[in-house]
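Check the record.
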Amino acid sequence: MKRLVVKIGSSTLTTGEGRIDHAYLDSFAKQVETVRDMGWQVVIVSSGAIACGLERLGMSGKRPDDMPTLQAAASVGQGLFVSAWGDAFAAHGMITSLVLLTRRDTADRTAYLHARDTLERLLDLGVVPIVNENDTVSIEQIRFGDNDTLSALVACLIGADLAVILSDIDGLYDANPAVDPNAKLIKRVDHIGQDIISAAGDAGSAMGSGGMVTKVKAARALGVAGIPLVICAGRREGAIVDAAAGREVGTLFAAEGMLHEITPRKLWIALGDSSRGTITIDEGAKQALLRKGSSLLVVGVADVSGDFEDGDIVDIIDKSGYLFARGRVSASRDETELALGRTREELSRNRLLAEMAEKPLVHRDDLVIFE
């Protein structure tokens, strides 16, 4: 059977007053039932526990911005959230389960693989897993920050054939439709470059934490893994069914196949851990990574930022600031900074830095390129 991951955000799942829209949830369940009859296994990534909790606590309206209140609301709302999903799907003969994740669960590769095995088994049993970030215990340093990233991670975990992000907007536009009446919907994207990321702009909603930029970045990571993504309006009738049937809906980020050899380890590097820093490299080093399949040597590094240690994940950008790769470093920020601007010969003559003359700062096996 084919596998589909559907992400639905709080702004789509709730009413204008911040309450769970049970009528919409019922129509959503009907769509999932139809898609399953079409031969798809479905995993849902959904937020909503905080919204449920805020409603029960009489705090509907403007979303609080302090972490303790949000976590308290998630604690109150989690049971309501589970019941709402369970009741809606049970009415259509489907069993749901709840899978709560934090970034800590995926930063450790063993835990990452256990999460994959759990989802695989739930699908084998005919269950529809509902995946959410564990908002009750997540803190800023370990939270995903938005379920767009989480949905991309889940799609990669289970080897999905398609991912769908249901949004409060029709898809990706070439300009912000909220301020530009001439903005046009981009129906298909074959390559995500800086122009597409720039077009995503900054957009969000009162109940959610993500925006179009996070969705496009999720699409980029999925594209590396060969998984197409559709971003469309969640309230559009039959949106999930149309996407699963291959009909035109929203914006399709096409993925004709894996761009590079992507192992589970590389997918974990791309999505499973948060970046601890940024490495800026020169054009020669960038071309060596893109065209020659090389590892990244420290002599190609122009600048570093952040506070990373040996073994941490870092973002890799070019001198224009464009993020095109991620990788696991073999040296700390302090060591890397000491080596900046030195030739290989100069590094070899320095007893403290000699090892860095030949050893890759990021080995090809620990490198994920997004284009």
Q: What stands out?
A: Residues 14 and 21 are 5 Å apart (CA to CA). Confidence is low (pLDDT under 50) at residues 202-210. The chain has two domains: 2-253, 275-369.
